[in-house]
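Can you make up a polypeptide sequence alongside its tokenized fold?
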Amino acid sequence: MKKYYWTILTVLAIGILMTIVGFVSGGSRFHEWDWDFMAAVDSSKPTQRQTYNLKGSFKNIDIDVDDTDIDIQQGPHYSAKIIANKVATVKPRIEQQTLKIIQSKVRKKIPLNFGLGWTNTSDFKIVITVPQTTTLNNVKIDSADTTLKLKQLKLNKLNLDSADTEVYLNTVALSQQLQADVADLEAHINDSQLNNLSLDCGDVDMTVAHSKLLKQNSIKGADID
């Protein structure tokens, strides 16, 4: 029994000590920690950015990253710009007419405010442009916590496999299928024409304005608005 009480007292003492250290070293200032198995390294200093610029034509897009903002839109030429933080490396490349952006290493970055709780952040930005005359064949997004914006695009297929996704479709013509397997999906569709929606989601929140949803639509969700 004494051992039990000593354990509790030890845990409380460690908690109080961490709180004191946090306020002494900067009050309520947020600290960012890189977690790698059992070790935590303070990374409060600004992280170094990795920027990739790719040029070359492609007909397909395959993105597999977490915590990211993705913009795919019409532009003067084919391009892909990826901005990532130092601890989340990616391997962007174009092969066999497919633009691939794959996250190769993940060390989750968790801002810790001593005594005030935990918060998650995102530090990925991807901007892709294609010429006006281009029709993309397949856009595949495999991610968690993603904001996807498609603007002024023509494509055949859009495939989403994500834990949590916000999708904005503005002036998009999708001719074959939009398939989404997402835990929580928030979709905003404006001035677009979509064919064959196949949505299998936990929660679906969808707004549609000035758009056409063509036949063979299947929307499943535990909670649909």
About this structure: The radius of gyration is 22 Å.
